[in-house]
Amino acid sequence: METRITQLLGIRYPILQGAMAWITGWEIASAVSNAGGLGTIASATMEPDQLVDGIRRTRASTHAPFAVNIPIRLPSSEAAVEVAIAEKVPIVVLAAGDPMTYAAKLRRAGILVLQVLFSLEMADRSREAGVDAVIAMGVEAGGNLGPDELSTLVLVPQVVRRTGLPVVAAGGICDAQGFVAALALGAEGIQMGTRILATRECTVHPNYQDALIRAGDVDTTVTGRSTGLEFRVMKNGLAKKILTMEKDGRSREDIDALAIGGLRKAAVDGDVDMGSVMMGQVSGMISDVVPVAELFDKIMRDSSARLREMVKYVEP
Ligand SMILES: Cc1cc2nc3c(=O)[nH]c(=O)nc-3n(C[C@H](O)[C@H](O)[C@H](O)COP(=O)(O)O)c2cc1C
Description:
The chain is α/β, with parallel strands linked by helices. The chain has helices at about 5-10, 25-35, 50-60, 75-85, 105-110, 120-130, 150-165, 175-185, 195, 205-215, 235-245, 250-260, 260-265, 290-315, and strands at about 15, 40, 65-70, 90-95, 110-115, 135, 145, 165-170, 190, 220-225, 230-235. It contains 14 helices and eleven strands. An eight-stranded parallel beta sheet has the order 1-9-8-6-5-4-3-2. Helix 4 links the parallel strand 3 (about 65-70) and strand 4 (about 90-95). It is globular and about 55 Å long. Flavin mononucleotide binds near residues 20, 69 and 140.
């Protein structure tokens, strides 16, 4: 399948693996790239030497393109940008911050730049910064959310119209139905995070995968609305405690003291009650752990079947 996203990134399927801090290193990134999608290393919690190692191991495990994700606002971003340039990574996905900070520098170094965004204001800023493509992420997604909580269904078509850039839809997509819906909205690719957590090659703690598989339709919630640091997470002991503190008007410092380090606790140590189990609403739709290649092949296969069925509605 060809879209502007596959052409731009040099990948077989227009499927991007969302970066997930503490979770997506070279193992899953290379598996995704080998399966025809775009694998992404999350740099957020890595020291520069760990990132260099991750990039080199990815290169040793795949000949296909891969990306490094850099959350702009984090203190680690400057060093990650330097590493990406020095290691000549083909693609950088910028997130959580102003694309103006690094986009021009990365592009001058010959690196393709994608920006994750949540609003049209960020879409305008991304276009001004000269990024090559954007990832429009709706409120269904797991992890850090935009403060205005636009849904993928509403955000994607507006970003398509506004920017004219190739758009990747993210948030709430885990299968062919979501993939076809994203294309219908004008997106030319999808990014998945939560679905990737439930793959064989994902190195997240098994307790995290089990919690995801067990989760139902209403088992996620959003914490941090009162502090301006919104995260979609599983409703567990930690989330309930944070929500109570927010209701009681507790300070950001108090809440941060409880929340910081939560993702590591869940994803690395396996504490799925008092750790932060970030996952999207689609966790309620996921009931198995599958190899990445199988997942992608099924999405592509089922998408053509779904499209053929849908054509019958409009062309009787
Ligand atoms: C556990 C977890 C950690 C995440 N960490 C990051 C990150 O470090 N950088 C980033 O840009 N996005 C991050 N995200 C967002 C994902 O890359 C992706 O855009 C999102 O999961 C897509 O929505 P979905 O969960 O509905 O598939 C994270 C998401 C999850 C679930």
